[in-house]
From TrEMBL:
Its cofactor is Zn(2+). Zn(2+) binds at H64, H157, H161. Keywords: Cytoplasm, Hydrolase, Metal-binding, Transferase, Zinc. Belongs to the metal hydrolase YfiT family. It comes from the Bacteria. Binds 1 zinc ion per subunit. It comes from Paenibacillus barcinonensis. Residues 31-165 form the DinB-like domain. It is found in: Cytoplasm. It holds the Pfam family DinB_2. GO terms for molecular function: hydrolase activity; transferase activity; zinc ion binding. Its main location: cytoplasm. This is Putative metal-dependent hydrolase DFQ00_11179. One of its GO terms (cellular component) is cytoplasm.
Length: 174
């Protein structure tokens, strides 16, 4: 697994069951608090440390989670209101290099995650099986993705990035 994928890559095959969805929604609901706990007590100097050689600074990781999950919520809403829409990809690496990701206090993104995930989980908890079967098309990967699968992908995504922070803390004993 290593430093890049401390919990491994997301892998789910087969049907997404109600039990999967419930667990993944719970994971999404818990992510803001887990992210907050992961960075608790870190100094600005520590937040500027990369989680691995060639990787993002810890503060960039927090801002990236907010950027990524904002995009995901929008993709969900597009899929729920349009017929298999093509979503707008974005260059996450270039976004992470913008000044807000490199310099802004992480508290802004931690608060954003709390509000965003509250709205997202409220929405996810009201969707029907038919809603979860809705899809969007991702032009960059050339994949059509179902919303039920994406719930799992983003539940994993949050855990993946929290593990970047916690694994560095464990390695550095910070």
């Amino acid at each position: 697994m290593g430093f890049r994928y401390p919990i491994g890559q997301f892998a789910h095959t087969g049907e997404v069951t109600l039990a999967h969805r419930k667990q993944w929604i719970q994971d999404i609901a818990e992510l803001p608090q887990q992210a907050r706990e992961a960075v608790k007590g870190l100094s600005e100097e520590q937040l500027c440390m990369p989680y691995r050689e060639g990787g993002w600074m810890l503060k960039q990781v927090i801002h990236h989670i907010a950027d990524s999950h904002m995009n995901s919520v929008i993709r969900f809403k597009l899929a729920l209101t349009e017929d298999t829409p093509a979503i707008r990809p974005y260059d996450e690496t270039r976004w992470a290099e913008l000044s807000d990701s490199r310099e802004l206090d992480i508290e802004v993104s931690l608060q954003l995650l709390e509000a965003l995930h509250q709205r997202w989980t409220a929405l996810l908890n009201t969707l029907s099986d038919e809603d979860y079967a809705k899809q969007f098309y991702h032009p960059a990967s050339k994949e059509t993705m179902r919303l039920d699968y994406c719930v799992g992908l983003y539940a994993w995504h949050g855990k993946h990035h929290v593990a970047h922070i916690t694994s560095l803390r464990n390695r550095q004993e910070i």
